Amino acid sequence: MDGELVDWADAQVHVLSHTMHYGSGVFEGIRAYPTTQGPAIFRLRDHVRRLVQSAKILLLDVPFTEDELVGACRDVVRANDLSDGCYLRPIVFLGYGEMGLNPLPCPVNVAIAAWPWGTYLGDDGVANGVTAKISSWRRHDPNAVPTAAKSTGMYLNSSLAKVEAIKAGYDEAILLAPDGHVSECTGENLFVVRDGRLRTPPTSDSGALDGITQQTVETIVADMGLEVTHEPIIRTDLYTADEVFLTGTAAEVVPIRSVDDRAVGEGRPGPITKEIQETYFATVRGQVDRYKDWLDHVE
Ligand code: PMP
After folding, report:
1. What is the pLDDT of residues 174-205, one digit of tens each?
2. pTM of the model
3. Which of 74, 102, 186, 234 ranks highest by number of CB atoms within 10 Å?
4. Would you state the CATH architecture of domain 8-115?
5. Catalytic site includes residue 150
6. How far apart, in whole angstroms, are the C-alpha atoms of residue 6 and residue 185?
7. 47-57: per-residue pLDDT in tens?
8. Which residue's C-alpha comes closest to atom 5 of ligand 1?
9. Domain at 123-284, CATH class
10. How far does residue 115's CA lie from ligand 1's centre (Å)?
């Protein structure tokens, strides 16, 4: 926290911190995986760059350089002896300065937490797929809330959609953009496969986050010799797709086996999704030579 290693129990903030009231923080979700050369943080620099860009969008002055943040992420993994891999959660937030909406008098604090965390949607979801429903909540208009920034406040929208889906008996929600096109899931990007071609919504106008796992998958797919494009997608495209899957650092690569009770394809993970999953899991563990530059070794 703010440049010091602090015990878990002591990592506390004041109840009147600005971010607690107004959602004014930015954060990242990063994973480290075990490799034959010790733990490696996957695409660490890309995550730190997105964190700093998110902060810029919110006019938060991060009091550390990108190199310092990269070093701090490595330090946290090392200090906690997380050699089997972990999830990292850096957050830049406004602490307690002066109560009121104006963020300018508040200090900018930075914390990085790390802990062992299994795959977000569960091992069964990874193996057999998850169920999803189209949410009644729309994604933000990028001119109402800046969707390019991974900000804490933006996740009220995701959280409402997630709860609605779970209470209705589904695993995950798919949000539509204000214009009705498919945007993304609550914490993951979405891909659609049809006739061997892959599509994912255009990040800029669908309000979806520019996902790092999404970019990784796009590279893997192109190297498989398949076509992948950013294109507007409508909800019925999901009903008639051969395969649908989601991507995110926490969730990794997860097949969607039904959307609004319509089975996707055969209602089980399809061959293209399975091949991408296999390559992704091997890549993050440093088992694919051509993608080794994405690994940031901690030891
Ligand atoms: N969309 C949202 C809303 C997210 O929270 C995340 C997770 N950061 C993603 C997409 C996937 O992004 P990434 O692959 O960079 O984790």
Report:
1. 999 999 999 999 999 999 999 999 999 998 78
2. 0.97
3. 186
4. 2-Layer Sandwich (3.30)
5. yes
6. 34
7. 999 999 999 99
8. 187
9. alpha beta
10. 18
